[in-house]
Design a protein that fits this description.
2 copies of one chain form a homodimer.
Chain A (H helix, E strand, L loop, with lengths): L4 H15 L6 H8 L3 H7 L3 H13 L11 H17 L4 H10 L4 H16 L4 H31 L8 H43 L1
Chain A binds a DNA duplex through helix 3.
DNA sequence: ACCTGAACACCGTTCAAGT
DNA sequence: ACCTGAACACCGTTCAAGT
């Protein structure tokens, strides 16, 4: 039976979920698929490209189109869905972070584009909108990688008697806090930017 | 001649600067020091611990005490010094990011503590101050790792005719932009928090 | 206390040769 | 077109034995 890209990504995702990133090696993956390591290099140029494909698979659920109106909810919603997608797979945040940094995730590019559009709606001027989007993404990836490593660390160790408040509720509240800080910052910046544009507009009209 | 921790960190930093993170391996480091690989494990428990020590060395210049008064300048200054330290070594941002995520950098812990104190001054309530500090740190690490990888990528390739505006001035402006968004967000949050505290205070006084 | 030598159990990637 | 076999050039870590 022929080996397809899909099978490879499926098997890679399974290894990730069951054993984590450290075990997601080309050789191990080949063994699981019962092919020689070299076979993988017919379908993927290198390991980075393969990891990028796994990242895109993980991010699929976060890619449904924006439902909410209003840039604040668009950013908040996008970020929550991103976090949820990352938390759905072992070491998800770490994997996606690495793929994003290596520029190997088309899904992350799409997410940044959407967040940039929302930032533009907030009043952030042209070229800064993508930067604003990246700033938000740095937060989500950093926070979630941190959260996930702690989560996985004491998933093996001490199971706290309270299985909810500290382990799931608190992180979500904390995540929302940082998100609010960013959104309020964008609102403040956007407002002053819109003011400046309006001022220039008036000046233009007076001179024209 | 006896091998000391200092010598190991020195040699590791030299490899990093001259060849980058991919070449910073235990075996290569041992070769450079003319010892066997096993010797390193007398001085460091594992590679992560050694990388943490290199991270702390890199961060040394960012650890001079806060000079400016006012929480805004304290955050802005701290972040600029952090970025400068990271950019002073090849793959500096990547190395410090990894060490921070692994909880192996005492210097990063110190930096977070200082930023948290500034956030508290901004009016961010107790336990959220550290989270605010981490949020800022996620931004600096994310932005700088990104900046540095692009910088190093086209340091080998196309040397743009303009050697200043896009390669150094623009990144600095862009870095400041994201920082302002975060600081304004903290200001907005801090103000509303202070208002709430004041309101509670009044209520207490009315009831008491 | 500090280090060597040698081993253990792996890596990612390439590429002639096969079908 | 797709894959095997085997090699190349490495890894991090451990640990008995030496000084």
């Amino acid at each position: 039976m022929q080996l397809h890209k899909r099978d490879v990504i499926d098997a890679a995702t399974a290894i990730l979920d069951n054993f984590g990133m450290a075990d997601l090696t080309m050789r191990r993956l080949a063994r699981e698929l019962a092919v020689s390591p070299g076979a993988l290099y017919w379908h993927f140029a290198n390991k980075q490209e393969l990891l990028g494909a796994v990242a895109d698979r993980i991010l699929q659920p976060a890619l449904e189109p924006h439902v909410p109106p209003g840039w604040r909810d668009q950013i908040a919603d996008g970020c929550h869905r991103l976090r949820d997608a990352l938390l759905s797979h072992t070491d998800g945040a770490e994997l996606v972070s690495a793929s994003f940094a290596a520029g190997q995730s088309a899904a992350m590019t799409e997410i940044v584009t959407r967040l940039a559009a929302a930032a533009a709606d907030a009043g952030v001027a042209g070229s800064d909108a993508e930067l604003a989007a990246r700033t938000v993404v740095y937060y989500v990836l950093g926070f979630t990688a941190d959260e996930q490593s702690r989560l996985q660390w004491d998933a093996a160790g001490a199971t706290l008697p309270d299985g909810q408040s500290v382990l799931t509720a608190e992180p979500s509240r904390r995540f929302a806090f940082g998100l609010t800080v960013l959104i309020e910052g964008l609102a403040a910046h956007g407002d002053s930017e819109l003011l400046a544009t309006a001022r220039d507009d008036l000046t233009q009209r007076r001179l024209g």
